[in-house]
Amino acid sequence: MILHLYFARRFALSLTVITAVLGALVMLVNLIDETRRFAEYGVNLMARLGLSLLNLPETLNQILPLIMILGTVSLFISLARSSEMVVTRASGRSAMRALIAPVMVAALIGVFATTMLGPIVAATAKRYAALSSDYRAGGISALSVSEDGLWLRQGGETGQTVIRAGRSNADASVLFDVTFVAYSPDGGPARRIEAASAALGNGAWSLRLAKVWPLTAGLNPEANAVEHETLELPSTLTLDRIRESLGTPTGVSIWEMPDFIAQLEQAGFSARKHQVWLQAQLARPLFLIAMVLVAAAFTMRHTRFGGTGTAVLSAVLLGFSLYFIRSFAQILGENGQIPVLLSAWAAPIAAIWLGLGLLLRAEDG
Asked: Residue range 101-112: average pLDDT?
């Protein structure tokens, strides 16, 4: 038990150091990227630094498999150079037993990343998206999905417009059972429009079976209402902006994802991408364990055998290959070419078996 705790502590220390180093590099790259991205919008240094900090958890969350590989490599190379691994094996401990502590640490980190880091990433990603929209366009557009349907906001020199729709088609280009409430620049309501459908075209909404109520003070809205077979309304929204506002699955906490998937499907959107993401998050601890096994298979050897650099490079390249295969499987799952469960769980399970196979071959020939 004492030896397992020692290995676990050394492994946690290696992961902490590597996370700190990579985090500093990520912050520097993010700051440069935010400076380039918002140079034309007059965003000051502190605001760009805040955006970089908000983007840091998501980036670290994405490179967590790489951190796990490098941490494992650092642990076993240091143990090999100090001959601690030789002593461990001489005492009767097999390589597989020496891996129990790092595997347990990887599993705990995987559970932490899924249950706690994921919600943190969701919160920071939402805040980052909101601030980016504010800096770029004054916050003129936003989209949210709730039990009441879809809610959008657009704005311009003539004021803000709030849009509610009961549902939409798959790509959000056509809204059904839609209501527009326009506000004047001073903040007061100007008019209300209800339509059977609204299709977003090039710079305008095309409404069908629309009815317009003026909300000007002193007028009777119903008496002055006007019905239109078709009606064109200028819009500052685009389909790309709406999809960006809907966000990626990382913008939703794993605890809220099942309800969000149900709301997406109720609103008419395809939730397959979010379903794949949810299953991939649940399978994440297995994938991190696989990274530890793969890295250990190349580095649990004494340095006097030579070829340490080649072994490290092989471990990193194989880890990247497994990450690519996992990402490719998820893309296939999002496109509906393979089942959701297969796209999320097949790669981590196969990677674990590969790591075990490499370890057994290295240890037992």
From this structure: 92
